[in-house]
Amino acid sequence: xxxxxxxxxxxxxxxxxxxxxxxxxxxxxxxxxxxxxxxxxxxxxxxxxxxxxxxxxxxxxxxxxxxxxxxxxxxxxxxxxxxxxxxxxxxxxxxxxxxxxxxxxxxxxxxxxxxxxxxxxxxxxxxxxxxxxxxxxxxxxxxxxxxxxxxxxxxxxxxxxxxxxxxxxxxxxxxxxxxxxxxxxxxxxxxxxxxxxxxxxxxxxxxxxxxxxxxxxxxxxxxxxxxxxxxxxxxxxxxxxxxxxxxxxxxxxxxxxxxxxxxxx
Length: 265
Ligand SMILES: N[C@@H](CCC(=O)N[C@@H](CS)C(=O)NCC(=O)O)C(=O)O
Known about the structure:
There is one protein chain. A hairpin with a 2-residue loop joins strand 5 and strand 6 (121-124). The chain is of the alpha+beta class. The chain folds into two domains: 3-136, 3-Layer(aba) Sandwich (Glutaredoxin); 146-264, Glutathione S-transferase Yfyf (Class Pi), Chain A, domain 2, CATH 1.20.1050. Helix content is 48%, strand content 11%. Residues 61, 73, 75, 97, 111-114, 125-127 line the site of glutathione (GSH). Glutathione is lined by residues 61, 73, 75, 97, 111-114, 125-127. Residues 119-265 form the GST C-terminal domain.
């Protein structure tokens, strides 16, 4: 890896690397599943040479409201959250989905984000990407046990149906409330997160979707999660205030702009 490339890595990449260096129990990225370890050497300003993971390149949606900001794709945030929670350095490439550049369509023929580069190959789809990250970089483990992996999985589709609905008596609000209520009960019984005390992949998938739900329904429907679901409310607050979430969340104005076509449609 060239010095220029190392210098182009983000501050977040460096700080994540330093975390690895300071906490040796956090295994550095790269294990037997990685054919070419993603490791480089970095000479720090103090003259120390430390092992540094080469940042993983990841293409994500760009903001439509503010230049050089991350956009409102919940699948991209899911991948970024996974990278953050695993303390992996990454190099984010913002893609204007309204005017997709040629280089992007070459690596993502379907024109979708997120895509990530593993071993010189670009891989799409947040399900596939997060699963691969778990296999390649198992520490800290983020897997959700199979029996809990689908908790909350109908929330996004019921949220979209309610958001698009123009008929208050079509049952879409109740369908969403039923799903939210089931999640509230699950959190009440299981702990702070879907799999108990520790955050896991299911939370990292659901968190960005709940963030979209909160912003879009407040804006377009003047609707908010009822006080009768306190465990869900505190679950959302806990996830939304995590450093990893604050660092990777979309701007509320982008979330609002992103859902406008669906609401108007
Ligand atoms: N199943 C995919 C969905 C990805 C997806 O739908 N991404 C949207 C942005 S949120 C996209 O790239 N859309 C293409 C476009 O808007 O042209 C995943 O989980 O990664």
